[in-house]
Amino acid sequence: MNADMAIEARGLSKRFGSLTAVDALDLDVPRGRIYGFLGPNGSGKSTSIRMLCGLLTPSSGTARVLGTHIPGDTAELKPKIGYMTQAFSLFADMTVFENLQFIADIYTYPRAEQKARIEELLTRYNLEGKRNALAGTLSGGQRQYLALACAVLHRPELLLLDEPTSAVDPQSRRDFWSNLFRLAKGGTTILLSTHYMDEAERCHRLAILARGAKVADGTPEELRQHMGMQVIEISAQDPWAAQQVLERVPDIASVTQLGMRLRALVPDAVPAPVTVVQKCLALNGIDAHVVLAAPSLEDVFVAATLHTREKAA
Amino acid sequence: MKPVSRVAAIVRKEVRQLRRDRLTFGMIVGIPVVQLLMFGYAINTDVRDLRTAVADQAQSHLSREFVARLGQTQVSNIVLEVATAPELVELLRTGEISIGVYLPPDFDRRVTDTHRPAAQLLVDGTDPTIFGIANQLRLMPLTFDTNAATRPPAEIEVRAYYNPERRTPVNIVPGLMGVILTMTMILFTAVAIVRERERGNLELLINTPVSSAELMIGKVLPYILIGMVQLALILTVGGLLFDVPVRGSIVHLYLAATLFIAANLSLGLLISTAVRTQFQAMQLTVFILLPSILLSGFMFPFDGMPLLARWLGEILPTTHFIRLTRGIMLREATIGELLPEVIALAVFTVLAMTSAALRFRKRLD
After folding, report:
1. Which of A87, A89, A108 sits opposite B6 (nearest CB)?
2. Does the complex come out with an ipTM higher than 0.90?
């Protein structure tokens, strides 16, 4: 086993009856990095995270998380991980301070240092003013900060965050992320799931999941370089009409409208894609400006999940 | 010491949440007091003054004396006099009366004739209790010859021990303790765990180093204390309002109650591992509560039940607890003299607790 890896999974699968929620997942998460699971709802993100922290037993496959073998006794793993559930799971009828104190007691954080640690977290996550507020009365962003504070209180080596910012506004999300980077800088490994492209863009590495299977992984940059598609941007007076034309072209894998523009994905194997697109549009009497564009993570996501979506259709 | 401090943390949390949950907090005190008042006053098996109608067709000196004596018994309260037997039947049918007394025209002659009944009682048999009470009227003497030197026939004397005045609350309150504790203890624990599952707290908790046993013990401990408070309430109210005695040792009573509370809490935990929602937990609690009321000997004497029902009754902790409370409170028995009941409760607790701990996994699947 590689000591630089916080998580190594091989062929991890989870089946619920006839449904395969996670299909033969291979995963290598380096220590001190932020690793993202990018995928739509139902792609197996939560199930994967739950298997990695021992909440669910894999149907097949194995994993090593911080040296603990999965499936197996995960008792020794618990003190080393922090887990933030997708839905708010702290006690709504207890105050912010009481929740933190309870978590500190549960992790048997030394009594003498408890107070200082809780104060530190209240300050760090902007909760000083809310210390005596019931957790149920907090705003979405404050709840997520409280959940994060509870998850990191015992200084875990690995932090598992299940869609941590799905109920948070963009500004709070930026703040939340700067805190995640601070934690990673301090040596904490972070595994999180998201369906936001901008959030995925911030991860050191990410895996794209679709229908329970990993369809691509790497750094955001690697994923863009090796997506296997060329991105063509088309500006047209009538993008809708242009899209109708281009969708019928076999060489074009996908067309997406973005306001007055279209983004088309053409496989690397097709030479001179700009010319191909221009000719098609000209033949149909559509006047358009066509250029080769730099791929975005969304293009990568569309390209990576094309295959599984075709299978579903 | 880590497990101890984790259990303490869970106990503190439970108490804190309970304090903020006004309704549940109110129920801890409200349920025992209200039920005790309700049932203590309402349930009465010593039935008196049944509504009675008389059809006296003899209209003789003897028959009028008989009717007068009937009115003097505490069993019947003569509310109507009618002419014929069919009228009595009609009054029974409409529910106007519970007993009809028919005295035939030849009543005087029949009284001296031992071969034919002198009078007829028409009783509403839909309620067996009323039928049993009305039967007492048969014992009314029919000899009116005051000069007769015949001695009354030999009698068997009946003495009611422990409750000579035959007051129902003396019988009801010790049993009611069992029923009330069954209801509150099972429901509170079952709901306490299921609520955390519903709210998602459990997913967070099982990802911490807290063990299943620590979690369960921490959840159960506060409720043992609550059960004790409820017991004290019932004893106090029962003593003040209904004059229900505690003749045996109060320490033995509390020992028995501790065991009984533990049995119910284990059952509550077991239920919590089997259900997914608070609503299901409540339904299962009612499912256990009903036989605990009807088959435990609380409402009906255990001896009168068929064998199968008695077996079912023996499974229920309430049955054994009611035997213990009636024994200790009324018959001045000691816990040692009621050892089989103690053993039954202990076995039940161990079995329920073990299955609950085995079923409660620190996993979601």
Report:
1. A108
2. no
